[in-house]
User: What shape does this take?
Amino acid sequence: MEYNEVIKSARGCIGPYCKACTVCNGAACKNTMPGPGAKGIGDLAMRNYQKWQEIRINMDTICEQKALNTEIDLFGKKFAYPFFAGPVGAVKLHYGEKYTDQEYNEILLKGCADNRIAAFTGDGTDYNVMIEATGAIGKLNGQGIPTVKPWDLETIKEKMELVRKSGAFAVAMDIDAAGLPFLQNLTPPAGSKSVDELKEIVKMAEIPFILKGIMTPKGALKAAEAGVQGIVVSNHGGRVLDQCPSTAEVLPSVVKAVRESGSQMKIFVDGGIRTGVDVFKALALGADAVLIARPFVTAVYGGQEEGITAYVNKIGAELKDTMHMCGAFSLDEINSEMIWN
Assistant: This one.
């Protein structure tokens, strides 16, 4: 199954908000919420995509031929590629009636594990979402990364217990979800966290903790102070705050701040990354790995595990081709000289 077939198949069951576009650039869905669109005027998802396209590749094929290796070591695990499926929740609300969150997560986790990458799973106001997600991760011997929303500390403690039982090799928190309206109306309210609160959460986790939603060098350094093991440069796909810069625009300054501080945090980035060429660009800008969310939804809706395989093969082939044409035969050899920005 080719990915263009997956897209065509998804169009029959993924509506009404998502259009399963050939190029998932945020234009057709724009500010549709519910749906996959961005907040406010709706241009941030489009900006995320466009800014990756403005970065160009410096080709150099005068180099020794070597075996090409795209594998990455992450928190004691080895993966085939430096890209992972990002967390998505409330799929019935945003993407159509075909799957429940449990069904979606089970397909996503299994498909990603079969292709030697990992999936992040989502969270929601329905407590069962985390129970089901961690249960599905447990069935795969911990091959998945559950994402906990920034609830109050007592709720986080309860959800961390579910994470531990799953055997997950890492856990994430999308702290930028503090901008989601439904989180702000809870009792007690969920939302932003202080450095001291994050330190407490990191201790609760007992496994590598990834903080998603970092958009400034200052934010990255606060995350490092809190002791997290990884950050995701992310504006939540444009869904939590209007008029932010794109992730491609802020990534270099975040990388610089983290590396100069001496922190060993892993740096992920998401937002508008759609091809293996984009993955290459992100790594050349200093990221260790990337997250891709919306296209994996299309893959699940359009072909289940087979759809995921088609998408992973597409992105992987594009990454390998770009590396080969730039003289990079391992991820460590990708550097800033290989892009024109």
